[in-house]
Design brief:
alpha+beta, D-Amino Acid Oxidase, Chain A, domain 2, FAD/NAD(P)-binding domain
Length: 492
């Protein structure tokens, strides 16, 4: 890297100072990966975000890096294999951010697929993952074992369950870290910069607003990766897309349970129940919306998820009063005729509706790195740069060089000695990686910073200080929703 990724410096003045090879609009996971990739190849890059890094769709996912087991049902074999390959890459380059997670898939007499078909599907899933996958291969559990380990599950018609592996991550944090890596490779980055209009041509110009001022950013090429907001910038040149809203609810922890669950609601939709920072994440719904402003959870959607939970896990006895928080996000998908929203294509596309202005549409969080590499391949070649992508072998900021479990044990011990409690120490290590060293420096200067921000969430005060000084956090929401998901964990 040309410079340390952190402190991640907001450089509005740098945006005005010169023209760039590439301007990326949108600081979500796709824009961040594209900016990092292009900057690493030697292109001059600017990356702007109207709100905060990962503040749009990228903060509202199911927090998973996964192959998409359910896509096998729709014969999306290429998408699944592509996703599993990326799961392996991300586990290697960011072991502190992407960690293995076991999933349980209960099977009932009334299930669409029985044990034999599911075993075939999971065997294919394991084979597609290749040699040395980052997770355990699948295993079948008999009904007695399932009832013993998970007594809260619906036992009527239960014929067993499969355990399989995928991975979990912190979506907003991942977007921040990738954007910071772009900064490390020389990209000029700034949040709080809103693109107002794009003038396409041989040398596109983008009118922006920042800090109460208006100015123009000049570039040889523009990537509009603003997700649900991208089409507004394109005007009549915007491709046809669908906005799909997904809602999640955050519930209390299920005592003693570390596995996630892939379940089916009464209407046939699958949904996840996932352990997350001492809570349980449940989702998602799917609904087409007309405007991105409509991406807020509704009571009907919350009730739908609670009914699905009550049917699949009656022993939990959860009610509306147990909902800690809820959130919704919007995916931008290619418009297509499909029998259901679940069958709408998540395949990624990049479109050039105007000269030297590209728009990214669709895709998955899991495949964003590889998809972005493909975007940059095309754009860089147009600009005369034929360097290959290297993001698949480039460790992300915070990735330790030691074997991960060795590093994790040592780092947790250092945090414990510094006064951080055991759960928060584990969480800090997984969220910050080797960036924990900066937290330890802060704690050494003020031992009170080792304490939790809130007693019910495993985040410490030093993380708040670091967010403000090193991570370009500019508001309370930046700190307490994205640098750490405190608002979701404690509610209110």
């Amino acid at each position: 890297m040309m410079r340390p990724p952190f402190p991640f410096v907001r450089d509005v003045a740098g945006l005005r100072a010169r023209s760039f090879d590439l301007l990326v609009i949108g600081g979500g996971i796709y824009g961040a990966w594209a900016a990092m990739d292009a900057a690493q190849r030697g292109l001059s890059v600017a990356l702007i975000e109207q709100n905060d890094w990962g503040s749009g769709t990228s903060q509202s996912s199911s927090k998973l890096i996964h192959g998409g087991l359910r896509y096998l049902e729709h014969y999306k074999f290429g998408l699944v294999q592509h996703s599993l390959r990326e799961r392996r890459v991300l586990s290697r380059i960011a072991p502190h951010l992407v960690r293995p997670l076991d999933f349980m898939l209960p099977v009932f007499k009334a299930s669409r697929a029985g044990p034999f078909m599911l075993s075939c599907g999971l065997t294919l899933y394991d084979l597609m993952a290749g040699l040395s996958p980052p997770v355990r291969r699948h295993r079948y559990y008999r009904p007695k074992r399932v009832r013993q380990d998970f007594p809260f599950l619906d036992g009527a018609g239960l014929v067993g369950a499969f355990r399989y592996g995928d991975c979990q991550e912190d979506d907003a944090r991942m977007a921040l870290v990738v954007a910071a890596a772009a900064h490390g490779f020389g990209a000029v980055c700034a949040n709080g910069v809103r693109a107002v209009s794009i003038a396409a041509g041989d040398h596109p110009q983008v009118a922006v607003e920042a800090d109460g001022a208006s100015f123009t950013i000049k570039a040889r090429a523009v990537l509009n990766a603003a997700g649900p907001w991208a089409m507004r910038l394109m005007g009549e040149a915007a491709p046809e897309v669908e906005l799909i809203k997904g809602t999640h609810v955050v519930m209390p922890a299920i005592p003693g349970v570390r596995a996630a669950f892939l379940l089916t609601a009464e209407d046939g939709r699958v949904f996840f129940v996932i352990p997350w920072y001492g809570r349980t994440l449940v989702g998602t719904t799917e609904k087409t919306i007309a405007r991105v402003e409509d991406a807020t959870p509704t009571e009907d959607e919350i009730d739908y998820l609670l009914r699905a939970l009550a049917t699949a896990m009656p022993g939990l006895g959860w009610a509306r009063s147990d909902v800690i928080s809820a959130f919704a996000g919007t995916r931008t998908l290619q418009k297509a005729d499909a029998e259901s929203l679940s069958a709408v294509s998540r395949e990624f596309a990049v479109i050039e509706p105007q000269p030297n202005v590209w728009v990214s549409v669709g895709g998955k969080y899991t495949t964003a790195r590889c998809d972005a590499a493909g975007i940059v391949d095309s754009m860089a070649a147009r600009l005369g740069n034929h360097q290959p992508s290297r993001t698949d072998v480039t460790p992300l900021p915070g990735a330790p060089t030691l074997p991960f479990q060795v590093w994790l044990g040592s780092t947790r011990a250092q945090l414990l000695v510094a006064g951080v409690d055991a759960e928060a120490a584990f969480t800090c290590a997984l969220r910050h990686g080797t960036g924990v060293d900066a937290l330890l420096v802060l704690i050494e200067s003020d031992r009170a910073l080792a304490q939790r921000v809130h007693p019910d969430a495993p985040f410490i005060r030093a993380e708040v200080a670091l967010a403000q000084s090193h991570e370009m956090a500019r508001s309370e929401q930046d700190v307490l929703r994205r640098r750490m998901p405190l608002h979701l964990i404690v509610g209110g």
